[in-house]
Amino acid sequence: MTDFTSLPDLAVRTLGGSVIAASDESFAEKENLLNPWKPAFQPETFGPKGQLYDGWETARRRTPGHDWALIRLGLPGQIHGIVVDTAWFKGNYPPHASVEACFADGYPAPAELEAADWVEIVPKSPLKGDTAHSMTSANTARVFTHVRLNMFPDGGIARLRVHGRVVPNPAYLTGLTVDLAALENGARVLDCSDRFYSSPDNMLFPGLARTQAEGWETARRRDDGNDWAEIALAAPGTIELAELDTTNLKFNAPAEARLTATTSDGDRTVILPRTRLQPDTRHRFRLKTPEVAKVRLDIHPDGGLARLRLWGPLTPKAEQDLTTNWNPNIYP
Q1: Coiled-coil annotation: which residues (predicted)?
Q2: How many CB atoms lie within 10 A of CB 285?
């Protein structure tokens, strides 16, 4: 895949990512690395430690070695690419960086990760100031839970993005009724008609949308068509409850919506007929479906949706496949 940035950022703070340790953060906090917004900068804003930066900045190193930050991914998965962004760091950026990754089940402390099987996924690479560097991962097969960003020898990095495919922990899915459309469970948007204002991936995010920007919103249509998004479920299952949430969309909610399922055999069937929606409302519908692998959401004619939830159990084969995929020993 060339444009790996179309995949979700497994490390972003809004999906649960956290910088759990760093060698140094004298000038700017390590937590800024995972902020969801674009790096901001206001010149001549000085605090007691110097110019304020929306990023991670270490002291000038006077000893051998290099600085590093240890990140727990919000969502474990297969990493396809890394973005190391030195935005606004022009005279204080590191000349080189590398990225390592490891798999560690459970909730290990930083010291416990020292003995983990770390794999270099981005070799030591040159950096420029005030630049977003896209770097392809050298290992897209293994499942990783943590990454370590190394910068040589010191300086500032505004953001780290870790793009990849979610591989969920089966312990939190098997034997339960789960949200089959949740990004954190492995669901993803395959395609959509329009993403003018915001991405349809937002519909699959955890929690409630706080603003319109945290959902999916399309441009105004001027033809006779309608907008749509196709979602691959976390794994095949049967849908028992659908939730279509238009919260915060007070003047741009769709008038109606429909859900069409694709079964594991490739058959298509309407599971929610074209149904009227209200603005700024969580709509819930009880359903009874066959085994479903994908769902197409049609909104008529346009507008936005804050969240899409599709609740139900996994099929026995899906549970078995998830358990197999979580096993780190099967990957090179």
Answers
A1: none
A2: 14
Q: What predicted TM-score, i.e. pTM, was given to this entire model?
A: 0.91
Burial class (CB in 10 A: 0-12, 13-18, 19+), 283: middle
Low pLDDT (below 70) residues in the chain = 1-2, 328-332
User: What is the predicted pLDDT for the residue at 332?
Assistant: 59
C-alpha to C-alpha distance for 230 and 293, rounded to whole angstroms: 11
Distance in angstroms (rounded) separating the CA atoms of residues 277 and 274: 10
Eight-state DSSP code of residue 219 = P
- CA count, 13 A, side-chain hemisphere, 64: 0
List, for residues 39-63, the tens digit of each pLDDT value: 988 887 888 877 778 899 999 999 9
Whole-number Cα distances in Å, 165 to 58, 141, 144, 187, 190: 31, 10, 10, 9, 12
SS3 305: strand
Can you tell me the distance from the alpha carbon of 300 to that of 255, in angstroms, rounded to the nearest whole number? 6
* Cβ-contact 156, 93 below 8 angstroms: yes
All structural domains of the chain? 4-166 (2.60.120.260), 171-317 (2.60.120.260)
Q: Is the alpha carbon torsion for 13, 14, 17, 18 positive or negative?
A: positive
Query: Could you write out the DSSP letters of every residue in 243-291?
Result: EEE-TT-SSS--SEEEEEEEETTS-EEEEEEEEE--TT-EEEEE---S-
